[in-house]
Structure formats: C-alpha cells, structure tokens
Specification:
Layout (H helix, E strand, L loop, with lengths): L1 H5 L7 E5 L4 H12 L3 E4 L6 H10 L4 E5 H14 L4 E5 L6 H10 L18 E7 L7 E6 H15 L6 E4 L7 H11 L3 E4 L2 H4 L2 H10 L4 E4 L1 H10 L12 E4 L6 H10 L4 E6 L8 E4 L16 E2 L4 E5 L12 E6 L6 E2 L3 H6 L11 E9 L5 E6 L3 E4 L2 E4 H9 L4 E10 L4 E9 L7 H11 L8 E5 L12 H7 L1
Parallel strand pairs: 1-2, 1-3, 3-4, 7-8, 9-10, 10-11, 22-23
Antiparallel strand pairs: 5-6, 6-16, 11-12, 12-13, 14-15, 15-17, 17-18, 19-20, 21-22
Helix pairs in contact: 3-4, 6-7, 9-10, 10-11
C-alpha cells in the first residue's frame, strides 16, 4: 500500500495485476485494496496487446508486472496510449520478488504512510474483463458491497472454518477466484495456489489434491470431468475433501456420474451465475447419479442475498414451467460496464423504479420442485427449418455417446440458412465413423437438430477460464 501511494495511486484509482498466480499476486491484490484502489487482473498467458488494451481502457494508474512481460507491454502501451507507472518484479514465488521490488521502489519518504483510507461499500473493488460482443473485452465493475454480499452468502451456506484448505484453481481474472481468495481469508483458512502447470493436468493434479489435503474444491466442470476420467482417483486418499463446488458451464451428466462414483463422500454444489452477479443460484446434487439420467442437474434456487425472476421478451414475469430469461437484482449485481453506458443500460430491464434487474441472457424454467432448470443461452438459440434449436441440447445428446469425451456445436449462417457444425473429442484414438455418429444422432435427436458436419479433435480449444472457446471453433469451422 505504502509504495503504491509513492506511485500516486489513490482512492478510486485502478491498478493492474500482470503476473503469474503466486503469493506475490495475492499480496498485491490486498495491497491495492488497502490503498483504496481497485485491482484489474489480466491473464499472463493472453496476448500482450489484449492486456495492454484492458489496462489502457480503464486508465490504470500503475501496474504490478513481471519483468518478462515489461518490454512487450511498454511497446503496446506506447502504441495505444501511454505507459502507466510500473512496479516490476523479477519473478514470482514466495513473495521474495515482490518484497525486492517494493524495497527498490522505496524512496525513503514515509510522509504519506500515516494516511488513512476509508473505503465505502459502493467504491470499486475490482474490474474483471470479459469477452465483448464488439470483439473487444469489456470491464465488469464490481464494488466492495458486491463482493462482500457474495462472500457473506458463501459463509452462511458452506460454513467454512479455519481448518479448511481451499483450492485456488481459477485464475485471478476469473470470478471464481473471489470465493477462493476472500471466503478463505475471512475464515482464516488455508489457500492452496494451483498454477497452470499443475491445474490443467489431471494426472498431476489428482495427487496434489490429496497431498495438500484440500477440503473445499471450486472450479469449472472441465477439470473435474478430466479428473474423473484420467486422474486415477482410486489411488489417492481424499478423506479431507468435504465439498466440491462447480460453476462456469454445464457439467456433462455422464462425467459428473463418473466423478461421484470415484468420490462419493464430498457434498456437490452446482453454482450458477455470470460475472456480472457472481453466483446467484445454487443446487446441491445429492447421492449417486442414476444410470438412466441424461439431463444435467438444475441450477437450483436463488441465493439468499439476491432476487430472481423469469421474464418474457417484454420483461414481464411468466408462469412457472414456462421458458424465459432469468433476471437478477440485489447487492451482488455489478454497477455496470466500465465506460460503456449504452451497454450497461441494455444489460438491465428498462427502469421502472427499484430494484434494477440484470438480464443474464440465460433461458431457464422453474420446475415443480421450485428449482430453476437451465435451458441455454439466448445467444446460442437459433431458428432452423422453422424450429427453435438450442445448441446445448445437441451437445447434451452427443455426450450420451460412450466414446465422446467433449462435444461442442456452433451455428454458422451461410446465406441460405443455418449450418450446424459439431466438434468432438474422443476418449481413445478410435473414433466412430461418420455413418455411426449420424445414426446415433438420428436415434437421439429430431432430424432438424442433427448437425450438418462433424469433426474430430484430440481436445477442444478452451478459454483461459477453462470454458469451451466457441469463438475459436467458429473460426475453425
């Protein structure tokens, strides 16, 4: 905090975090918050041009950056604006590089160190940049109130304590990290940092979870799917693991069935919510998954600190059992997109007093038990031959094939209609023939939902937050 003040960082400023996941990065986050500023993390594996754009877009006052990124980052910043103040770390690990960088920056002037910063609940705490429809990332503005309402809900729901050991699997530019870092710290628990070289390899990760005695795991379903299939989980002791939380995308039911078979003891929670709200609904998936179940579990009921509704295209509440868009209001909902007032306005239902309702873009319905059931994204629904087609439904059907490990479907408009293209990855090198996969689809899907083409890959491309990279698939298509 003190050295940030010497870099002219003050309350309300933005500070970039551009480094590998490490103790140095965690300490930097807390230093930024203590200075009254907001942290802006970027993916160190992303193109430098993207990271420079993000920091230029929100006018960061300073950036804590690893030296290996400095030269390219300076060049990019020079081309699009100006270079912010840099606090340069020679590396990361154990906090030593951060300490050395701070000592080097210290001018010996301690006149500003008695300063007291009082942060208000609605002050900006962090900016998380997500993919934008314009092709440029947009910054989701999240306040201290947003974060704390979620952290308090996690405390109320999961009841962690100082004996817990939390996984830190998600990168810090992904909203799953808010639970990892801040719920853990609130309860004096242990945070186990998992870097990319460990976190994406099931054969490496499986023994680490056991050795580190992780008790609360939180990640996107993709790595859990791989753990269940390739982690050889039966070889390790997971008696410490009491809770498995997953969010970010649909967990294919056959992979969840496999995981629960190997790890029956923990409680499993499906957490749902976009970056703009963090988690807004949740569902506990109890017991073993029946062999005849093909549909994913519901996304559940509304978190106690929020309100939700299902509305039609005019924003009117619709009856139970009817499909519509899920909207959310409450203290966890973002304050808006950075410097994008028009997009912010479009993200909410037209103002009609308080509260304001954020439009998730997700289509759901409420079942007889009062749980929300996820149908799909509004932007992943297409009309084909007069029928409405949800691409996620096609993917769910493809996952039922015994040989299919990963499935993704994209829609391409060719001027004469909509072409459906399926991208598949298999468990083994032996792949079903085109005739076999088309026959399987004919047995599991109506004719108008059968993809026009199929392509097989060793693995499907994923984003830095471990979600299927649909934009890349469209480019491949």
């Amino acid at each position: 905090r003190d050295r940030l003040w010497t870099l002219e960082v003050g309350k309300g400023d933005r500070v970039g975090i551009y480094m590998k996941k490490s103790i140095d990065a965690v300490a930097s986050i807390f230093g930024v918050l203590r200075a009254g500023a907001a942290y802006v993390p970027v993916d160190p594996a992303a193109p430098v041009s993207r990271n420079a754009f993000i920091h230029n877009n929100c006018s960061v006052k300073a950036v804590l950056i690893e030296r290996r990124f400095e030269e390219a980052y300076r060049k990019e910043c020079d081309q699009i604006g100006s270079v912010p103040n840099l606090l340069i770390l020679d590396g990361t690990g154990g906090g030593r590089s951060l300490e050395a960088a701070l000592q080097q920056k210290d001018s010996g002037d301690s006149s500003g160190r008695s300063r007291t910063v009082i942060v208000a609940p609605d002050d900006l705490a962090y900016l998380l940049y997500t993919s934008g429809s314009t092709g440029k990332p947009k910054g989701v503005m999240l306040t201290h109130r947003n974060a704390m309402s979620f952290v308090d809900w996690c405390s109320e729901t999961f009841r962690p304590d100082c004996r817990d050991r939390f996984s830190s699997h998600a990168p810090f530019h992904f909203d799953l990290s808010i639970l990892d870092i801040f719920v853990c710290i609130k309860h004096g628990a242990t945070l186990v940092l998992l870097t990319d070289d460990v976190g994406k390899e099931p054969s490496v990760l499986a023994p680490v979870i056991s050795k580190k005695q992780i008790s609360i795991w939180y990640s996107a379903p993709s790595i859990l799917s791989l753990l269940g299939q390739y982690g050889s989980l039966e070889r390790y002791d997971y008696s410490s693991l009491r809770m498995i939380l997953f969010a970010g995308e649909v967990f294919p039911i056959k992979h969840l069935r496999t995981l629960k078979k190997h790890l029956p003891a923990p409680r499993y929670f499906n957490l749902y919510g976009p970056t703009e709200t963090n988690v807004c609904t949740f569902y506990e998936a109890q017991g073993q998954v029946p062999v005849d179940r093909t549909q994913p579990f519901p996304i559940g009921t509304t978190c106690s600190h929020l309100q939700t509704r299902i509305v039609d295209e005019q924003g009117k509440v619709i009856p139970r059992g009817t499909e519509g868009e899920l909207v959310v209001s409450g203290p966890a909902v973002m304050s808006g997109y950075w410097n994008l007032p028009e997009q912010t306005a479009k993200a909410f239902l037209p103002a009609s007093g308080k509260p304001s309702w954020y439009k998730t873009g997700d289509i759901v319905f409420e079942d007889a038990d009062g749980n929300y059931v996820y149908v799909g994204r509004r932007d992943r629904m297409v009309k084909r031959r007069g029928y409405r087609v949800e691409l996620g439904e096609i993917e769910a059907a493809l996952y039922r094939h015994n040989e299919i490990k990963e499935a993704a479907v994209v829609a391409i408009s060719d001027g004469e209609g909509v072409q459906l293209r399926a991208f598949l990855a298999c468990h083994t090198e032996k792949k079903p023939s085109l005739i076999q996969i088309k026959r399987f689809c004919a047995e599991n899907l109506p004719l108008y939902m059968i993809p026009d083409s199929f392509s097989f890959h060793e693995r499907l491309p994923r984003t830095s937050t471990d979600k299927i990279n649909y934009q890349r698939l469209k480019e491949m298509g």
